[in-house]
Amino acid sequence: MSVAGSGPVTANRVPIASYRTYEEAQRAVDHLSDQQFPVKGTLIVGAGLHLVEQVVARMTYLRAIGMGAGGGAWFGLLIGLFLGIFAPTVGSMAGLVLWGLVWGIVAGAIYGLISHAVQGGRRDFVSRSSLVADKYEVLVESEHAARAHELLGKLSG
């Protein structure tokens, strides 16, 4: 299956090579660029996309509290720094930043605990999601396809 005619983005572009990994496709485009090939308009298109969700840990109440506290700490620090800009002295600025941090940790921990409890046992895990493709096609504008084939032939040969 070719992606060359799949829409307006790929219109007037032809596939010149197909690779198993994105890094290989990227290396091919980099090689074209190194050879002074006009790479503007070149596409790397993932075909056969899959959403992969990797489970990394079990979600427990303690982990939910910790993750909530971590997120709350960043938010509280940001609020404390923002309010600290208007503080008349450095000491009062430090106090505002510290209070923002503490309240952010406390509020985030409470929010993390409540949000995990409300789930009622559903989604008791932590995961990371990513999109992966079966293959990656390099597409160039049709008027440059012959030159691209020639340059990539030197790369693999």
Characteristic terms for this protein:
single chain, 157 residues, three-stranded antiparallel beta sheet, 4 helices, elongated
Describe, in short, the structure shown:
The protein is built from 4 helices and 3 strands. By secondary structure, it is of the alpha+beta class. It starts with 12 loop residues before the first strand and ends with a helix.
Structural overview:
The chain has a three-stranded antiparallel sheet. It has helices at about 20-35, 60-85, 90-120, 145-155; strands at about 15-20, 45-60, 125-140. The protein is of the alpha+beta class and about 160 residues long. Helix 2 (about 60-85) runs antiparallel to helix 3.
SSE inventory with pairings:
Elements: E1 13-19, H1 22-34, E2 43-58, H2 61-84, H3 90-119, E3 125-141, H4 145-156
Antiparallel strand pairs: 1-3, 2-3
Helix pairs in contact: 2-3
**Count of DSSP-assigned helices:** 4
What is the gyration radius calculated from CA atoms?
A: 26 Å
Query: What percent of residues are in strands?
Result: 25-35%
Structural class: alpha+beta
What value does the average pLDDT take? 91
Task: Tell me about the largest β-sheet.
Answer: 3 strands, antiparallel
Q: N- to C-terminal separation?
A: 25 Å
- Tally of DSSP β-strands: 3
Please bin the fraction of helical residues: 40-55%
Helix and strand run: EHEHHEH
Strand order, largest beta sheet: 1-3-2
* Low confidence ranges: none
Question: Overall 3D geometry?
Answer: elongated
